[in-house]
Model the fold of this input.
Amino acid sequence: MSVASSRLAIHSSPITVTFLGTASAMPSSTRNHSSLAVRLGSDVWLFDCGEATQHQIQKSTVKMGKIEKVYITHTHGDHIFGLIPLLAGCLNGNGGIAGGAEDPRESINTDKPHLEIYGPLGTRAYVRNALTYTHTLLSRPFVVHELRFPFDPQSGDYTALPRHPSESPLGKNISQVGGVWQDVYKDEIVSVSAAPILHSVPCIGYTLTEAPVPGKIDPKKYIPGIKRTNTPLSVMRQLQAGESVRLSDGTVLQGPKPRVGRKIVILGDTYDPSPMIPIAENADLLIHEATNAHLPGLVSNTRDDDTYESVQKTAMERGHSTPQMAGSFAKRVNASSLILNHFSARYPGNDDVDPEAKMIMDAIGSLAAVEFGRPVVCARDLMSVDIRIPPVDH
Ligand SMILES: [Zn+2]
Ligand SMILES: [Zn+2]
Done:
């Protein structure tokens, strides 16, 4: 199936987001390091790939073989340590051949469709160095595109190592224009733009936008007029695109108005994502970190002198957000829904089975909801949500 035809199916199906890991710096028995999968039709795009993402995929309904793109928000280990094993796993890269026998992976055709990786400066060097020094050969090619900040070198690979045998030479270095990286990926149906978000290291937020969805056309409404005036049937194409057509007798046919496509905003670690505002407004779903919360009486290691202000100050100093900060950003960009992720290890992720954990996560959700003005969901590992096309424009 071509990219275009497989993408077309997206318009008529839910976009599914599966949280593979929802922990911050320290993973726990109930939360893995950061990663989430977005399923677009049959394709899978990953956002971040923390340690053991491959294991989480195996526990989920996400198919390894369908991973087409990986978007990295920043190169902190809890967001990228799982990338090399993931590449080895889904591009058949484990093991070597001893005794000088030929390994077909030594000379791979990098013109074949490749797995695309997007990330900040250092992503390419990290992947290339890690694959090279671990003697990992892959049976499919990959390419790394880097989103370069204005203070980064705008060209070059940031490593003296030559390209890995499976690495395509087509890796782009994409400069910011007007504060954003517009359409780093774009096809007829979906596009991805990005913008910086403030963290302790260079960090990127991504917006995935679906193109306008063609309205349902009812031929019965148009055929009589088209026949009466001997108009070529090819005008149906214009009508399907939502355009109006004037027939020879003066009748004007109006095609169904396309509906606004879905928009998903996925942030990495941040204490201030405001540079995302131009590309984050009116999202159907915003995914925002909420690493630290002030939960006196609920979390046992709350210190007596902790206040909301002191917790927020500490969170921000470490480059992170509280639930209230996430809630107010969601309101500011007029998001339709908000899901929190990237939780401190002190907030357990088994709130579906443990009433105490549920109390904590409900409290975190409520803190964000007060600012947002709508209910807020706290992500749990392996939780999936479907984003459907709203029935009317919004
Ligand atoms: Zn993190
Ligand atoms: Zn980080």
